[in-house]
C-alpha cells in the first residue's frame, strides 16, 4: 500500500563524493506513522494465518527480485552513502542470502511438546508477536534491513519499516521490491529523520527493532518502556583490537588496517581502538602507516559532511590532548565528504577517539606493557559489541574470549565466522539477538497450552 503522506517537509540527500543532490524523500508526519501502524495491525491476523510455507515462498520471490535488481540498487546505494559500487553489490548479495536463509529457517521454526500427563497434550507454541517497527542504519542499508525484515515477516509479523534518513531512496527501492511479493500492508514504509523514528518507536507496535547509534537506541528503549513493546537493539561499539607481543607485526598491521579502514570505518564491528604490546609496537605502527597508504586510494567517502565533521573533531581533540598523527588526519580540499585513513599514536583511554565510537577510517593506537594490561584496558568500556585478539598463545586466546564482556570475540581475524552466528551485544551496544536462527525467536512469543479431553458422560 503506497499512499502520499500528509507531511509537508522533505529530506534531501547529497552525494558524498561531490555534494550534488541525489535523492529526496518525504518527512513522515506522526499521522502518517499512525496510519501505517494501523494498516499493519489490520493486516497482521491474516498474515499470521498464512501457512509458513507460503510466507517462505514470498520471501524467496523477494530474494530473487532483489538479486535481479542488484546492479540498479547498488548504484542508488553508492550515490546516497558513498560505498563503492562493487562493495554495494556484495552487500546486496548478503541481503539476498539472508532472505533465503530465513525463508528456509522460517518453515522449521516451531515449538515443542512437553512430557505431561498421558491423558493430556502439553505444548509450547510459537506465535508472531504482531506489528514490528524496523528502524535501520545507513552504513549497510540493504543487508541489515533484509535480516530484520526477513526474520520478522517469515514468522508472521507485519512490519513498518523506516530506513535511515541518509539512505531513503535505497530503503524505498528495497521496500518496493519486497512489497511486490507480499499481501497489502504486510510491509509498509515510512521515511523521515529522527522525528519519524521517535513516532514509530512510541506507536502501537509489539516490537521495535533498531540498528544504529547508542543515543538513538536509548531513546527507543525509553519510548518502548512506556508502551510495553519488546526492544531489539544493536547500537554503537568501540571495538578493541589486541596485538600480542608474539605476532608478526606486519601481518597484525594488515589485520588492523582491514578492521579500521574497510567501508571507510563505517562498520558496526570496525576496529575502533588498538592495544599493541610494546615489544612489537614500533614495527607494528610503521607497518600500519604503510598499510594506510595502500588503502588511501580504495576508500569511498564518509556518508556526509556532517559525519566527517564528527570524525575529524575526535581526531582534532586527540591531537590537542597529546596524540600524534602518523598519517592522515586532515580534511581534504574540495567537494564531498572524503577523509583519509588515519593512524594516531600516543592515545589514551580517556580520549573520545578511543572511548567512543568514531565510525570513520581512524586507527588510534595505545601501547601496553603486556597482554594482561591490554585485556584489562580493552574490557574497560561502556560498549560490548565485539573485540579481536591477535596472538600466538592459546592460553591468551582462551583468556580473551572468557574475559572480554562483548557479544563477539574473534581470534586472529578481524572479520569472518560461520554463517548463522548470533550473539547478544552488551551494555551500551544493545540487547537481544540480531542475526542467525535465534532472531526468529526474538520475533515470536511462546505460549504454553495444556489440552485435556472433556469428561466422559457429557
UniProtKB/TrEMBL annotation:
The keyword Metal-binding does not apply. GO terms for molecular function: oxidoreductase activity, acting on the aldehyde or oxo group of donors, NAD or NADP as acceptor. Residues 1-11 have a biased composition (Polar residues). Keywords: Oxidoreductase. Residues 2-449 form the Aldehyde dehydrogenase domain. InterPro entries: Ald_DH/histidinol_DH (IPR016161), Ald_DH_C (IPR016163), Ald_DH_CS_CYS (IPR016160), Ald_DH_N (IPR016162), Aldehyde_DH_dom (IPR015590). Gene3D superfamilies: Aldehyde Dehydrogenase, Chain A, domain 1, Aldehyde Dehydrogenase, Chain A, domain 2. Residues 1-28 are annotated as: Disordered. It comes from Dactylosporangium aurantiacum. This is Aldehyde dehydrogenase family protein.
Amino acid at each position: 500500500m503506497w499512499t502520499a503522506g500528509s507531511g509537508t517537509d522533505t529530506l534531501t540527500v547529497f552525494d558524498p563524493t561531490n555534494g550534488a543532490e541525489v535523492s529526496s524523500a518525504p518527512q513522515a508526519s506522526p499521522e502518517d506513522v499512525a496510519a501505517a501502524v494501523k494498516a499493519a495491525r489490520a493486516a497482521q491476523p491474516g498474515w499470521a494465518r498464512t501457512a509458513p510455507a507460503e510466507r517462505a515462498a514470498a520471501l524467496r520471490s523477494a530474494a530473487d527480485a532483489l538479486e535481479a535488481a542488484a546492479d540498479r540498487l547498488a548504484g542508488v546505494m553508492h550515490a546516497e552513502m558513498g560505498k563503492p559500487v562493487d562493495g554495494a553489490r556484495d552487500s546486496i548479495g548478503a541481503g539476498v542470502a539472508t532472505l533465503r536463509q530465513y525463508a528456509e529457517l522460517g518453515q522449521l521454526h516451531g515449538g515443542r511438546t512437553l512430557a505431561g500427563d498421558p491423558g493430556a497434550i502439553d505444548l509450547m507454541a510459537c506465535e508472531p508477536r504482531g506489528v514490528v517497527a524496523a528502524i535501520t542504519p545507513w552504513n549497510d542499508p540493504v543487508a541489515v534491513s533484509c535480516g530484520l525484515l526477513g526474520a520478522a515477516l517469515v514468522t508472521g509479523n507485519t512490519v513498518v519499516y523506516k530506513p535511515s534518513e541518509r539512505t531513503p531512496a535505497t530503503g524505498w527501492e528495497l521496500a518496493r521490491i519486497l512489497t511486490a511479493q507480499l499481501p497489502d500492508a504486510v510491509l509498509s514504509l515510512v521515511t523521515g529523520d529522527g522525528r519519524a523514528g521517535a513516532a514509530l518507536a512510541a506507536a502501537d507496535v509489539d516490537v521495535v527493532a533498531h540498528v544504529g547509534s547508542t543515543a538513538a537506541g536509548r531513546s527507543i528503549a525509553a519510548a518502548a518502556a512506556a508502551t510495553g513493546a519488546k526492544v531489539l537493539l544493536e547500537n554503537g561499539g568501540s571495538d578493541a583490537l589486541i596485538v600480542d607481543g608474539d605476532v608478526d607485526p606486519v601481518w597484525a598491521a594488515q589485520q588492523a588496517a582491514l578492521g579500521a579502514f574497510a567501508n571507510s570505518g563505517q562498520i558496526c564491528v570496525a576496529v575502533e581502538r588498538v592495544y599493541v604490546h610494546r615489544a612489537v609496537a614500533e614495527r607494528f605502527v610503521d607497518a600500519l602507516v604503510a598499510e594506510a597508504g595502500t588503502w588511501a586510494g580504495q576508500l569511498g567517502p564518509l556518508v556526509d559532511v556532517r559525519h566527517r565533521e564528527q570524525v575529524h573533531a575526535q581526531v582534532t581533540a586527540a591531537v590537542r590532548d597529546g596524540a600524534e598523527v602518523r598519517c592522515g588526519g586532515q580534511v581534504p580540499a574540495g567537494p564531498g565528504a572524503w577523509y583519509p585513513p588515519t593512524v594516531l599514536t600516543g592515545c589514551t583511554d580517556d580520549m573520545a577517539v578511543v572511548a567512543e565510537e568514531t565510525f570513520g577510517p581512524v586507527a588510534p593506537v595505545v601501547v601496553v606493557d603486556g597482554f594482561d594490561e591490554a585485556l584489562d584496558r580493552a574490557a574497560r568500556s561502556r560498549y560490548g559489541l565485539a573485540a579481536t585478539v591477535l596472538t600466538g598463545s592459546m592460553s591468551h586466546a582462551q583468556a580473551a574470549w572468557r574475559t572480554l564482556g562483548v557479544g563477539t570475540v574473534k581470534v586472529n581475524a578481524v572479520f569472518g565466522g560461520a554463517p548463522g552466528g548470533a550473539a547478544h551485544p552488551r551494555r551500551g551496544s544493545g540487547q537481544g539477538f540480531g542475526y542467525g536462527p535465534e532472531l526468529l525467536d526474538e520475533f515470536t512469543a511462546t505460549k504454553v497450552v495444556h489440552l485435556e479431553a472433556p469428561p466422559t458422560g457429557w
